[in-house]
Specification:
Number of strands: 10
Mean pLDDT: 91
Shape: globular
Distance between the termini: 36 Å
Strand content: 15-25%
Strand order of the largest sheet: 6-7-8-3-9-10
CATH superfamily: P-loop containing nucleotide triphosphate hydrolases
Low-confidence stretches: none
Radius of gyration: 21 Å
Order of helices and strands: EEEHEEHEHHHHHEHEHEEHHH
CATH architecture: 3-Layer(aba) Sandwich
Bound molecules: adenosine-5'-triphosphate, iron/sulfur cluster, magnesium ion
Number of domains: 1
């Protein structure tokens, strides 16, 4: 029998009370991640990727959260902060897009990793310092003992991101959530960081959630993909079928926006026209309808259904998709 999932999210809803009314940033979301697998969560800005990851980590302070987040069988929604804090670091860890905002400028990177280890593992000072050097070596930082004594500003962007990965993995968590970990890096360094995460994952059998707005990143590292639109799941599939037969028009749009080898340099990047849906006053029907290219060839009856009835997330296309008119054939590559 297959391993039970390490992370299992069911019917997650995250709502922010705002002066203009409640903002439902994540709605009815569900996904699973097993040990040794990477789930890529992809969607454009504002689709709810970070709100989802922060809900899993228990980092929201002002949001109402309902549904279930189970980590290794333990329910995290409603868990007291003290217990959540124990799980963060030891059982699950997160890395963010901008390492500088997560690193303190006045302490050396070695001190910061050691402190993190001491707090979560309750290790002694000397053991924590040694673990910090070891962790820096594990993420490929040359001369780790010397570099442990340096400050964040003495590291390049890519090396700082390695430091963050070292810190996240220093306490041997089982789940790693990476929220746009390579967005701020140039392409070569981005590839190195993605390879590093993949290698560490293989070595340790980590479950990884890789959050990105870039399907190119997903293609490189993910086993499974969840496409989010307006806080909801649009489509979910293992990576190969998702790229071969994307069923949701939004997923197709994301794929069409990927740069291709035969693109001319002076060609503008393709984007999906229109803007993300309002979460404050969601329209009835499909949230993607105002931007959906599929409606150009839909019948009046189909169009009216799309505009009045919210599609449920289901398996009609072979894998779950939230669309009344999912595509069943592949895209030309
Ligand atoms: N504290 C908050 N109060 C009200 N709305 C919020 C709050 N935090 C996030 N949101 C809203 O939730 C939605 C989802 O935000 P989120 O940060 O998860 O997007 P994202 O998919 O991570 O985007 P990006 O690619 O830009 O990082 C956005 O519309 C955002 O404005
Ligand atoms: S339900 Fe209709 S509007 Fe929404 S994505 Fe599918 S075809 Fe487009
Ligand atoms: Mg984000």
């Amino acid at each position: 029998m297959a391993d039970p999932p390490l992370l299992s999210v069911t019917d997650l809803k995250v709502t922010f009370p705002t002066p203009r009314g409640p903002v439902r940033a994540v709605d009815s979301l569900g996904f699973e991640v097993r040990r040794g697998r990477t789930l890529g969560i992809v969607g454009e800005s504002g689709s709810g990727k970070s709100v989802t990851s922060m809900a899993v980590m228990g980092l929201h302070t002002a949001a109402e959260i309902t549904g279930s987040v189970r980590l290794d069988g333990q329910e995290l929604v409603g868990l007291p902060e003290r217990e959540m804090n124990r799980l963060r670091g030891r059982k699950m860890a997160m890395i963010f897009q901008d390492p500088l905002s997560s690193l303190h400028p006045y302490y050396t990177v070695g001190e910061q990793i050691a402190e993190h280890h001491r707090v979560h593992i309750r290790s002694g000072r000397r053991a924590a310092r040694e673990r910090a050097v070891e962790a820096l070596a594990e993420v490929g930082i040359p001369e780790p003992r010397r570099r442990a004594g340096e400050y964040p500003h003495q590291f390049s962007g890519g090396m700082r991101q390695r430091v963050m990965i070292a810190m996240a993995l220093a306490c041997e968590p089982e789940l790693l959530i990476a929220d746009e970990p390579t967005t701020a890096l140039d392409v070569t360094v981005q590839a190195q960081i993605l390879e590093l995460i993949a290698a560490l994952q293989q070595d340790r059998g980590l479950a990884v959630v890789m959050i990105t707005h870039d399907l190119g990143v997903v293609a490189r590292v993910a086993h499974d993909v969840l496409v989010m639109y307006g806080g909801r799941a649009a489509e979910q599939a293992p990576v190969d079928p998702l790229f071969a037969v994307p069923s949701h028009p939004y997923t197709r749009g994301l794929l069409d926006s990927l740069p291709r080898l035969d693109d001319r340099d002076d060609e503008p990047l393709r984007t999906i026209p229109g803007s993300p849906p309002s979460l404050l006053a969601p329209a009835p029907g499909c949230a993607f309808a105002p931007r959906c290219p599929r409606l150009a060839t839909a019948t009046d009856q189909e169009r009216s259904r799309c505009e009045s009835e919210r599609p449920s997330f289901g398996g009609a296309a072979g894998h779950p998709v939230a669309c009344h008119l999912p595509a069943h054939e592949g895209v030309a590559s």
